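ingest -> validate -> predict -> emit
validate: passed (alphabet ok, no gaps, 146 aa)
predict: started
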Amino acid sequence: MKIAIGSDHRGLELKQKVIKLVTDAGNEYKDFGAYSEARVDYPNIAEAVGKAVVSGQFDRGILICGTGIGMCIAANKVKGIRAGLAVNEFMAIRSRQHNDANILCLGAENDESQLAQMVKAFLTTQFEGGRHQTRVDEMTKMESEL
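emit:
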C-alpha cells in the first residue's frame, strides 16, 4: 500500500515512529510535512494528505498533531475523506471495519503503548460493508448536499 503521512510540528517525533512502522510492514509512504519543529498550521497538511488520498495516489493516510483532534476535523473537511481518531487498537479497528476510514489520526500527546497495534490495525483491517456500507453511503450523500 501507499500511505500519505503528515504531522504538525508537535507530531514530528511520533511521525518518525509511524513511518518506521509503515515501512517495516512493507508499505510505501510520502511525507507531507512538517519537516522541522518550526510552527506550522495543521489544516494545510491535513488538506494535502486528504487530497492525495481522495485522488487515488495513496491508499490511506495517517495524520498526527498534539491530540489528533485538529487533524481529524481538518481532514474531514476534504470531500471523500473519512478520518478517524484512534487512541487505542480497538478504535483503529472499528474505524476501518465500520466506517471505512481512509485516514487515521493520532495524537502525539496520547499514550503510545498501542501505537504499533493501531497502525497495523489501520493498515490491515478490512471494511465489513453490509449495514455499514449503508451508513458510509449516507455520509457520502451528506457531502453532496452541502
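Helices lie at 12-24, 42-54, 69-75, 89-97, 115-124, 131-144.
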